[in-house]
Amino acid sequence: MHEVGLNHYLILSAVLFSFGVMGVLVRRNAVVMLMSIELMLNAVNLTFVAYGRFLNNLDGFIVVFFIMTIAAAEASIGLALAVAILKRFKEVNIQKFNLLKG
Amino acid sequence: MLLQEIVFYFLSFLAVSGGLLVIALPNPIYSSLALALTMVSLSGLFFTLNAYFLAGVQLIVYAGAVMVLFVMVIMLFDLKHEIEAFSSGLRGTLIKVASVGALLGLIVGGFEITKMSSQPEELTGLGSVRETAIILFSKHIFAFEVISLLLLVVVVGAVTIARTRGGTHA
Fold first, then answer.
1. Each residue's pLDDT tens digit, A75-85
2. Fewest beta carbons within 10 Å, which of A51, A76, B133, B167?
């Protein structure tokens, strides 16, 4: 008797979240960092849906709906900023954006 | 039952391998493809969790609009010289991997300590479109209106930020 329980979904979500954190830390491309942030948001969506299902509460699903909206809006703003940065600096390697460095 | 477990492990294998490929592949187009794979497998996991409306929205909004936006922006860049895809220094990378591993261990340890009853409840028709719509438009109507206002602000802001001066040619 090895049903797929709540912990299975939570551990999967934690693993995906940690992959997103790794992507933000390790990668240098600005767009890939934005994609890692989207991966983190997806992992959190899975957590909310799992809890909403296993606690028989629809509020978890509604929160996921709003998170998806916010994440799409934030991705579009982030990409607009990345396009503006590309036009200014002519590259996307974040280690070259050091004009604020003391 | 066995079919449930097979579906869950298959979808989770796809999601985890997609997540790993996002951070490991140097070419950003391949990373975006791997992220699209992760999002589609997460949509499948939403189906297994009886969140049918959310699974559809995930496919339409995330895998269908956000990933297309990412691919379009990546194709704007000329990325033939993607040699330095990862941050340099082995010692720094090992510290980062160790800290993320510690974070993952803390999260999973937190689950295992607070053990909840993990028996799935019986089907109550909970995540259908009708139920979700009823509760969205009755209990969360204020947040719904606020988020529509926020989307208006985001659209105006994105166009303002990415606008070129002097017309359509950059």
1. 999 999 888 88
2. B167
Q: Which residues pair with A64 in a beta bridge?
A: none
Touching B: A residues 50-89, CB under 8 Å: 50, 52-54, 56, 58-59, 61-62, 64-66, 68-73, 75-77, 79-84, 86-87
Q: Rounded to whole angstroms, how far apart are CA atoms A63 and A69?
A: 10
Q: What is the ipTM of this complex?
A: 0.90
Contact A49, B54 (CB under 8 A): yes
Contact A8 B12 (CB under 8 A): yes
Please tell me which residue of chain B has the smallest CA distance to A94.
B87
Length, in residues, of chain A: 102
Closest to B151 (Cβ–Cβ): which among A31, A73, A82?
Answer: A73
Token pair belonging to B28: 């950003």
Sign (positive or negative) of CA dihedral B145, B150, B156, B162: negative
pTM across the whole model:
0.89
Separation of alpha carbons A100 and A80, rounded Å: 21
- Please indicate if any CB of chain B lies within 8 Å of the CB of A41: no
In a 13 Å sphere around the CA of B135, the CA atoms on its Cβ side amount to: 15
- Residues of chain A found within 8 Å of residue B60, distances taken between Cβ atoms: none
